[in-house]
What does this fold into?
Amino acid sequence: MKPVDKDSIVLVLKRLDLYIENPGIMKYMDICVKQDYKIQYWLIHEIYFSPYKIFLNTITREQFLFRYEKTKKYVCLNHMSTAEGFIKYFMRCIQEEMEATNKINDRKSLRMEDLKKC
It folds into this structure.
């Protein structure tokens, strides 16, 4: 990862109040809390390098955490094989949330509306 990308991701994490300044504090965290932080960092990284990067400018902490908790509810994350499904579900939730908030329609949504008209 380029330093400029890393700095941008850190800024997003700080804005969402997810950045941990002192990584040593993680040794005092519960395993589940530590896992949540790691997954949230991973999700921000994935969004940053996706076509939905623009949403990182407008998403709020509440929106991010709500979608994260919703994803945890519907996608069990027991092992790495479900990690990909977890990320895909989360990304789709974020995409839908931000499109609705910003009144943006993706091409798939537009095609579905055209099919309904027929």
User: Anything to note?
Assistant: DSSP finds five helices and no strands in the chain. Residues 3-117 form one domain.
